[in-house]
Design a protein that fits this description.
single chain, alpha/beta, six-stranded parallel sheet
């Protein structure tokens, strides 16, 4: 069973995660992209976003940032937000707490962001607790994540990586469930490419026609 929208019970179990953005009276969608940067796919996403004057948030894998620094810098140059997505896409439920925290630390040395999204949305409470006390080096000054770290989940997940779904299925996942303040999770990855690259322009067009704007977190 695919949970396009996280259940209330799951959200209650992780109350400290950011599941949606506050409604401000301006119809706003917050598009996010996980698992990049990818040297060819991410620039295509950036070009599509630019056509709709849309900003987004990219949750990057540390190892990909290390391999493709120019693509990572392009994301920031285009005015989008970046966040950490661990160093090697670790599953927090299957990873020792210290190993998981070390992965986040290593990734954030490259990414330097106070935004973090756990891969698969899976993170143990022990990992949440440990991350809340860490200091990271940022531009030669230490900052404490206890008061600044935002762990970002999603309101709607597109399931763009699921090859059992057609682009139309993925499109419907989004437009049936995302409204004002929704955080929508896509992926700028090779696995998700065929669905995502087809659906993204349609989603941008659909919400633009309804008067929505697209902002980064």
């Amino acid at each position: 069973m695919r949970l396009v929208k996280p259940s209330k019970i799951f959200r209650m179990f992780y109350p400290s995660l950011l599941w949606e953005m506050p409604k401000t009276g301006e119809k706003t969608i917050y598009l996010t992209f996980d698992d990049g940067p990818h040297p060819t796919i991410t620039p295509l996403v950036l070009e599509i976003l630019k056509r709709y004057d849309a900003k987004a948030t990219f949750f990057c894998i540390g190892n990909n940032v290390r391999q493709f620094p120019a693509t990572f810098e392009l994301i920031k140059k285009e005015g989008h937000s970046v966040g950490c997505h661990t160093f090697n896409h670790e599953n927090g439920w299957k990873t020792k707490t210290q190993d998981y925290v070390d992965s986040v630390s290593a990734a954030n040395e490259l990414i330097q962001s106070n935004l973090f999204r756990p891969p698969h949305g899976k993170i143990k409470r022990s990992e949440l607790k440990k991350l809340s006390t860490l200091n990271f080096l940022n531009n030669s000054k230490h900052y404490t994540l206890h008061s600044k770290l935002k762990i970002v989940a999603w309101t709607v997940i597109a399931y763009d990586w699921d090859h059992a779904l057609s682009p139309e299925d993925v499109y419907q996942n989004v437009i049936r469930n995302a409204g004002d303040g929704a955080i929508v999770a896509f992926h700028d990855s090779l696995k998700a490419y065929s669905n995502m690259i087809s659906v993204l322009p349609r989603v941008l067009e659909y919400y633009s026609q309804k008067g929505f704007v697209f902002k980064n977190i």
